[in-house]
Write a structure and sequence with these properties.
This protein has 70 residues and is mainly β. It has no helices and 6 strands. The strands form 2 sheets. Strands 3-1-5-6 form a 4-stranded antiparallel beta sheet, with no helix packed on it. A two-stranded antiparallel sheet has the order 2-4.
Length: 70
């Protein structure tokens, strides 16, 4: 997470939600570290595709997750 000038923001809460939790789950929230990164764990549940939406400071980003199997 970066500020308007591109500098990292420390201690910002970032939330994450899997659109299809029967395919994959994700750590629900994390705080940014000194370089502005938040670390999440995504765990596959069953084969398929889902989107994980990350939200922080009124901004959102999405990534697609494809889980093939164990």
């Amino acid at each position: 997470v970066l500020d308007n000038e591109g500098g990292p923001l420390f201690g910002v809460k970032v939330t994450a939600v899997s659109a299809v939790p029967t395919v994959a789950t994700v750590t629900p929230e994390a705080l940014t570290n000194p370089v502005g990164k938040a670390i999440f764990t995504v765990s596959g549940v069953s084969p398929g595709t889902t989107q994980v939406v990350f939200s922080a400071a009124e901004q959102k980003a999405m990534v697609e997750v494809v889980f093939i199997g164990h």
